[in-house]
Structures are given as structure tokens and as C-alpha cells.
Amino acid sequence: MRHATANVTLVLALAGCGGAAMHEVQLVNKSPRPITEVYVYPMGASDRGPSKGTIAPEAKLVVKVKAGNVDFLAVSQRVKVDDKQSEVRTASQTLELKSPTVLVFHDSTQTVPGLDRPGTIGVQFQVPPEAEAPAPPPGPDAP
Q: At the fourth CATH level, which superfamily is domain 20-125?
């Protein structure tokens, strides 16, 4: 009986030592603006914690993240909308992290190659499409 107790204790001790695996997540900025804040936090958490850093255009940031359901939030540099307005754009993604992953942040108006690669996910900053110039008024009919 003593032998069985030792096996149960060993199994419980090994189970207690484990934890969620850590995975590398590459955060890539394909937008034309710097990303000024990056948050990575458990899905639905009310506290996002501190920013993990900044990402210049065409640069990447690599973070180690515990496996499980995770929220990612990127905040871009303020952009001028018109003479009177500016805005800060955000992009977010929730995913079940099971393996190393690449998140590619880009504007919704961009076509970014490589998003079809396994383990790669595109995350969009929503950008309103450029307004088309109004058509010129019809001219007088030529005789």
C-alpha cells in the first residue's frame, strides 16, 4: 500500500509543476504608422496590464505568451482625418493560442501578402475608404 501512495504523490507533484506552455508570438506592423502601444492579456480581463512596447512600420515585436485564450490590442499613432479632426485607430484580435503565431497588423485598405501562411493571422485597423472625387457636372451638349 505504501508503494501506491508514493505513485499518487508523484503524479500530483508532477501535475502541480506543469502549467500552460509559453508560445512565441511575432507582432508585425505592416501599417504605414507606428504602433505606439501593444497589449497582450487573458481574454476578457478588465486589466490589460502595461504595454509590451512599440512597433515601427515594417518592424516586429516578439513576445512570449502563455497558451490559452488571449486578447491582443494594438494602438496606432494618432492620424489626421481632416483639418479639424484626428483619431487614434486600434486593432484587436482574440485567439486560442496553441502554438507559435504571427499577427500582422495592417490597414483595412491594404493588401498584405503572406496572410495565407499557416500560423499567420491578419489584424486590421479599420480605415475609411478614400472618398471619391465628385463627378464633374455634365457640360453643355455639343451640336
A: Domain of unknown function DUF5300 (2.60.40.2890)
